[in-house]
Each structure stands twice: as structure tokens, then as C-alpha cells.
Amino acid sequence: MVTAAVITFAIGVALMLLLGRDFLPSITKKTDTPTKTETKKTAPKISEPRTVTLYFGNSDGKHLVGKSIVLKKGTLKEEITETLELLKKPDANGLYSALPEGTSIKSVKITGRTATINFSKELKENHPGGSTWELLSVYAIVDTVTLGFSEVDNIQILVEGRIEETLAGHVMINKPLSPNRAIIKD
């Protein structure tokens, strides 16, 4: 029976024979001289601006309707924050922000594929209520971020740093949420 050590030794001898004498010193000798690949500087990649769809409440107040925008390039957290800021502004084409007046984004944290978005108390306190409006508010946030940023699969909504059960008594937000395409109207 051949042991792993014998097989490793045989492979090493074969490599040394194939690659010549320089093989062994190159894997055992440390040098302070950088190799060509270490000294060669690569130009930073210039990323394209990202196109994201913002989801607003439509005129019947029952669906979300998308509006595409182009974001300036930034970190993922910066781009998500910018997107949510734009989501707060009503659209001129009869679409409505599903976020209550005065709502601000306090922070965005990315952990794995989940974005935790911390909103001000106005998201809950100024919410007009009603199951449909609450559904629009929650999924305007969730769908805009998860469908607009391929790096994010789920959204955890916080209010003043705390996990809440709901915003207005109807839609559970105490766990990370996935997108809801059924509420989107083309």
C-alpha cells in the first residue's frame, strides 16, 4: 500500500525533472525582490453607472409602478441610500411615494446578501395606515432594492434601529423580506 507521503514525494520528483533544477529553489527560497506580477500595477476598473427601477404607488393606490433612473457610481451602501432618497420624492407622472412624509434613511448595512435599512420613526408614526398602503410602503422599499441591486436578496426594515412587527398592523416586517413581484403593475 502506497502512502500519501510517497505519492507526494513522487509528484515532487516528477515536477523537478520536468521543470528543471530551478523548480526546487523557487518554492523553498524566499526573496525580498518582487516578481514581475507583483510590481505591475493594474489600472482600477471603471464601473458603469447603475440603472435601477424605483417603485412608486400608482394612481389607483393598489399597485407599484416602476420608473428607471441612472445612479452615479458609489459603494453599494451609497447607491442604495441614494436610491431610497429618490424613492421618497413623488413622481410628476401621477405616481406617489409610498414612504410617509418626513421619513429619513438613518443607515444601510449589508450583511451577506441582506440589506438592513434603518429608517427614522416617521416611517411608522406618519404612516397613513390601511393594509394596501402598508403593503405598498413595505414593498416599494423591498422591491426597489432587491430588484435593483443584484447583490441584495432580502431587506430587513428597522425603525430607529429596532425591529418592528409591522408599520401599521398588517404586513410583518420582523424578518428579512424578499421581493414581491405580484404587486408590481407593468
Structure description:
With 186 residues, this protein is an alpha+beta fold. The protein has two domains: 4-39, no CATH class; 50-183, no CATH class. It has helices at 4-19, 23-28, 36-39, 76-87, 122-125, 131-148, and strands spanning 50-57, 64-71, 105-111, 114-119, 154-159, 162-163. It has a four-stranded mixed sheet. The protein has a two-stranded antiparallel sheet with strand order 1-2. β3 (105-111) and β4 (114-119) form a beta hairpin. α4 (76-87) packs antiparallel against α6 (131-148). The longest helix is centred in the last third of the chain and has 18 residues, at 131-148. The protein is globular, with a radius of gyration of 26 Å. It starts with a helix and ends in a 23-residue tail after the last strand.
Keywords:
6 strands; about 190 residues; alpha+beta
pLDDT average, as an integer? 81
Strand order of the largest sheet: 3-4-5-6
- Envelope shape: globular
Q: Indicate how many domains the architecture comprises.
A: 2
Q: How many β-strand runs?
A: 6
Structural class: alpha+beta
**Helicity level:** 25-40%
Beginning-to-end CA distance, first to last residue: 68 Å
What is the number of helical segments per DSSP (H or I, 4+ residues)? 6
Order of helical and strand elements: HHHEEHEEHHEE
- Rg measurement, Å: 26 Å
Uncertain runs? 4-10, 12-19, 21-46
Largest sheet: 4 strands, mixed
Strand content: 15-25%
